[in-house]
Amino acid sequence: MAKSDYLNTNDNAFVAQLQTFKTNIGSYATILGINQPQITAQAADADYYGYVVACQQLIQNGAYQWSDWKKLTRAGGSPPVTGAPLAPVFPPAVPPVAPGVETRFRVLVKQIKANSNYNSSIGNALGIEGSQPVAPDLTTVQPELDATLSGGQVLVGWGWGGHTAYLDMIELMVDRGDGKGFGLLAYDTTPGYTDTTPLPVTPTKWKYKGIYRVGDQRVGLWSNEVSIIVGG
Fold it and tell me: How confident is the model at residue 3 (pLDDT cuts 50, 70, 90)?
C-alpha cells in the first residue's frame, strides 16, 4: 500500500515540518549531496513561511474578537472583563522569500529521495516520509448519501469516506413509494450516481440507501436512508 503524501496540508503542521527539516538537514547534507546554498534557501523559506502563518493567525483571531466587539458596541450587552480587544503583537519580521515555498520544498525533497544514500530512517529524521495508511474496520464503514433533483433526474451523492483503497463499490437501493419496498438500484464504482428512472406523474417520495461492497460481499453498515419528493 502506497504511503500518504509526506507534506502536511495543515499550515501549522507544515511550518513544523519545514523547521524539522531545517534543524536536521545539516547532519545529512554531505551524504545526500545537498550544498550550503540549498540549506540556506530552505531555512529562509521555513522561517518566512512560519512568520507569515503566525501573522495571519494573529490577524484572523483579532478579526473575530473585533467582530464580536462591534456587535456588542452596536446592539448592547455585557462586555467581557478583559474589555475591548487589543491590537495584535506581531513576531519579529523575517526577510521575505519569493512565492512558492511548497514547490521549492518538493523539488528539494525529490532530489534528496533520488540520492542512492537516502533511506526511510533519514526521511523520518527530516520529516519527509509519509505515513503508512491504516486499514479501516470494515465492520463499521458506513456510506453517507444525499439526494437532489437536477434536470428531471435524481442525483444520489455518495463517496468513499476516505477508504477508496479498501472498498470496491457501493450497492444502492431505492424505494419508489409503490408499496414494493426497497429494491436494487445499482452497483456503482464512481462516487455520485444518476437515477435515470422517469419521474412519476404525481408527487411521490423516493427513498435511497446504500452499503459498501468488497468483491461479492457487503461490508460495514447500511447508510442512513435519504428521501426526496419527485414528480408532479
Answer: low
Which among 163, 160, 159, 161 is positioned nearest to 135, based on CA atoms? 163
Q: Cα torsion for 56, 25, 133, 146, to the nearest 10°?
A: 20
Asked if residue 74 belongs to a domain, the reply is yes
Q: Are residues 103 and 150 in the same domain?
A: no
Determine, yes or no, domain membership for 212: yes
17-23 average pLDDT score: 97
Task: Note whether 22 and 105 are within 8 A (CB).
Answer: no
For residue 44, the enclosing domain spans 11-126
**Helix orientation angle between 11-24 and 101-114, rounded to the nearest 10 degrees:** 50
Distances in whole angstroms, Cα of residue 50 to Cα of each of 13, 14, 24, 39, 105: 10, 9, 17, 17, 14
* Contact of 163 with 181, CB cutoff 8 Å: no
- Would the pTM count as exceeding 0.90? no
| CA geometry: angle 227, 183, 186, nearest 5 deg | 85
